[in-house]
Design goal:
The chain has 177 residues and is mainly α. Helices cover 65% and strands 2% of the residues. It is built from 9 helices and 2 strands; from the N terminus they run αααααααααββ. A two-stranded antiparallel ribbon has the order 1-2. β1 and β2 form a beta hairpin. It is globular. It starts with a helix and ends in an 8-residue tail after the last strand.
Length: 177
Amino acid sequence: VEETYLYHLTRRDIRHNFSVYFYMLYLTSESRWSFVVGVVTFLPQVVLLVAVSCWLYRDLPFCCFVQTFLFVTFNKVCTSQYFLWYLSLLPVILPTLKLKVQDAITMATLWFLGQALWLLPAYYLEFQGQNTFLYIWAAGILFFAINVWILIKLLYAHVHKPMFSKGKLVKWNLKDK
């Protein structure tokens, strides 16, 4: 139970990562408030996951995507491999999105640009030994904002159709979007 669940409540990875919380956790890692900060940073994630579960539970594929996207975006630790968790679900929800090609291109461009802006100062920290923590933190905040904006766009673009009705799988035509 400790290794599987409880560890994640108090986990504080002070290595640089995409998380919006990394710099605060880094600065407070030796503080007597470190435990409290670790738990408090977990609260927005839990609240959002419960809210989304209650809101989207009838549309299971989209609910799983949104939950995973939120979990990764609001997590205390976020590295590149975490992105695969929600990207692997993207093909499942794409047919349910009413999204203009231009919007999709803008979202993808901003998402990659946000990563690039984070990766540049991270490179200078790791390989050049320069103190770029503030730049990494600022880029992390920007990347967080980009992800929140993308999620909002996807929520508006999604055509909500329940997966089940009266205990049976609902069949629907994608042309009905």
